[in-house]
Amino acid sequence: MSTAVIHYIDHPHPVTGVTNSKLGVWLFIASEVMLFGALFSSYIILRIGNPAWPHGWMVLNVPLATLNTMILITSSVTMVMSWAALMMNRFDRFRLYMGLTILLGLAFMGVKGFEYSSKFHHEHFPWTDNFYGIYFTLTGLHGLHVLGGILLNLYFLVTGKRLWTRNPKMFAGRIEAAGLYWHFVDLVWIFLFPSIYLL
Amino acid sequence: MSEHNEHHELGFIRTYVFSIDHKVIGIQYAITGLLFLFFGFCLMMLMRWQLAYPGEALPLIASWFENSQMMPGGVMSPDLYNSFGAMHGTIMVFLGVVPLAVGGFGNYLVPLQIGAPDMAFPKLNAASYWSYFVGGVVMLCSFFLPGGPAQSGWTSYPPLSILASTGQTAWLIGMVFLITSSLLGSINIIVTIVQLRAKGLSFFRMPFLVWAQFVTSFLLVLAFPPLEAAAVFQLMDRVAGTSFFMPSGLVVGGMPLQVAGGGNPVLWQHLFWFLAHPEVYVLILPALGIVTEIIANNTRKPLYGYKTMVYSVLFLGFMSFIVWAHHMFMTGMGTTMSNFFQTTTMIISIPSVILITCLIITLWGGSIRFNLPMMFALAFLPMFAIGGLTGLPLGLATSDIYLHDTYYVIGHFHYVVAPGTLFALFAGIYYWYPKVTGRMMNNLLGKLHFWISFLAINGIFMPMFIQGFAGVSRRLHTPNFYAHAQAVQGTNVFMSISAWVLGAAQLFFIINFFLSLKAGKRASDNPWDATTLEWATPTPPPHGNFLQEPVVHRGPYEYSVPGKATDYIPQQVS
Ligand code: HEM
Ligand SMILES: [Cu+2]
Fold first, then answer.
1. Is B153 in the pocket of ligand 1 (CB under 6 A)?
2. Chain B residues lying within 8 Å of A39, measured CB to CB
3. Which of B45, B66, B145, B474 is 20 to 30 A from B126 (CA-CA)?
4. What is the mean pLDDT of residues B241-246?
């Protein structure tokens, strides 16, 4: 295929200081902020308008969610480590930390799945009332984002070697971008956790 | 550079169908968008029959529908009328104008005008086209669902939309695809503009069209996600039985409705209009950019107040996020809220007026060339101005309470989007057609297209103001049902005839479009003697666009510089 050279794929633009993909991910995150911003605002409005809204800590499993918070924060750390490993030219270490990140992501999803199934078991469904509606919609949408991140990371773990040998800078840039996304998904949980479970 | 532009044979599918070249994707967007515009317009022409001759069977085609439920005996049922109305609005806005203006013109022109070889993310670009395509197919398929497509208007207000037939679910799913497509596309445009400008092309040397696309893309990135959130909530309401938008104690058809309750229908309106007001600028700004390019080129003068226009468009983009509730004065908001939104609405009209004024002053003392693109571009100015000025009474709560949801509103926004934006888009098609195809379009056919369209389109929309003042509501299946509306029923006949004439006039365009492809006069690389970078490429531009990386030395519109031999100096001439 004829390839027109596109600049700033692997090294940053001298003026903006970022690569194309990094800027792209930042813009994507901006749009995600608007998405979750709208979801949170809606939650607030629905909750204010409904005097019968229960407190999260009375009906939801706070210890489990705390555990999940720890899992996710840890995964953010391992994600950074995987990128740092690339910066130190240690591809084997990258593999290790990326694998750990994926496992932690899966653990988060597992705990979530357990939480959901116990809710279903107690006959709590999205249509039970708007509290559960919000609970399932917001955590569900966040879960989908986590799942997306896991798949993305898995893709880089499996296919990474090739790109790493061909263009290490570009690969490191991609991992950095994936990391930005992963941290954002974590951050959303950091907001979800107190506002749904603790308030 | 030469090795980058070398041409490998890719085969038909890779070259024209699953291409990742921004120009091909731009053309795909434009063609698909035009087809959808035509389809949306056909829906309207059918509806116009019912509006002009309520209850009479459609001419010619009535016999096809003898036994159909939606058109018993060829007479349009209210349900079908509602479906057509909702789909007309949705298709025109989300599947017609935006894909044509941002997907088509943006994709094709932005990399060329900034001297880049392609978009920053070519594969993402293809993905965004295909996501749009899938969204469009979902919308079209909804016509074949039991109960027909969405019926709750393009705004999908609950509770109606949540009680509606399955078509509404398809509408929501289609919208999610369209939103995804817009997000990917606009992120791509922003990154391309920020990162890939040619050497020497500082922000204030960018053609105004690029600025317009830049601001438009920001609106799409930031305003669409709240609608996506709303669509997710509405989907949950429809398929998972939640009641985010459903209040308690709703009585439908005399029976109390069984929902969990406690929801808030006005919440939907907030989320919807938070997108939909910026969306009107998404419709207008690219059009304004196109008109600016053409006017600067055909007055042979530098643009008056280029920097002022840039600042205005940035300010406009910012303000468009804080005016949305001027669509909601009838929801019973308090006076403080209402004051805030009235004030911001009045403020946002200032940059709009500045933009138009700059364009009008640009005409002053120019040696104007009245070619085809210029005629459409000039027609845009008064049409857009009528649209804008008739918006002011809608932005003030006192007058809006009378005019809300009457045909006045329909007249107002159509002046902005139909004789306004659509004319600008036609101007753009006539202007860049030679660059894209290497052929000029036929002048006579073009002029017929212009004059008939111009007269007919005003014949449709001008009487809408009269109907609005007479109190005729929008979305009425039988417009003469209410006694007060019977007095102006005659205008409906006039408007419908105008609409069919408008439809017929488009045949000139369609014939011209295809005829010129084969038989048009060959175009040189720069047939309009223009300055901007896209004219510095071979015609049509090859993959990779430029033969050498361009270097820019000056602003975009150096026309008639005193003391120079030619009356234009291209940006890259040192
Ligand atoms: C140029 C030919 C067009 C004609 C003759 C036309 C005509 C109409 C009419 C008569 C209605 C009111 C239907 C009713 O209330 O029952 C309507 C609604 C609407 N039109 Fe158009 N229109 C045209 C183009 C456009 C364009 C280019 C756009 C957008 C870019 C557009 C967007 C809409 C929207 C959003 C509605 C409101 C639909 C609703 O109430 O849900 N139209 N149109
Ligand atoms: Cu508005």
1. yes
2. 229, 232
3. B145
4. 92
Cβ–Cβ < 8 Å for A108, A146:
yes
pLDDT digits (tens, 9 = 90+) for B139-159: 999 999 988 999 999 999 999
For residue B486, the one-letter residue type is: Q
Whether the link from the prior residue into B434 is cis, omega within 30° of 0, is no
C-beta of residue B177 within 8 angstroms of C-beta of residue B135: yes
Q: Dihedral of the CA atoms B496, B498, B503, B504 (nearest 10)?
A: 120
Ligand 1 atom closest to residue B37's alpha carbon, by position in its atom list: 27
A86 DSSP β-pair partners: none
Q: Is A45 on the interface with B (CB under 8 A)?
A: yes
pLDDT greater than 50 at residue B250: yes
Longest dimension (CA), chain A: 63
pLDDT in tens, B96-114: 999 999 999 999 999 999 9
Q: Using an 8 Å Cβ cutoff, are B372 and B443 in contact?
A: yes
Nearest to B349 by CA among B329, B333, B326, B332: B326
Tell the residue nearest (CA) to atom 28 of ligand 1: B92
Beta strand spans in B398-449 (E): none
> CA-CA distance, B297 to B283, in Å (whole number)?
23
User: Is pLDDT at B181 greater than 80 in this prediction?
Assistant: yes
Locate A156 and state its tokens: 């880089």
Residue of A9, A10, A39, A139 for testing the chain B interface, max B β-carbons within 10 Å: A39
Residue nearest to atom 37 of ligand 1 (CA): B89
Q: Do B221 and A30 touch (CB under 8 A)?
A: yes
Q: B475 CB less than 6 Å from ligand 1?
A: yes
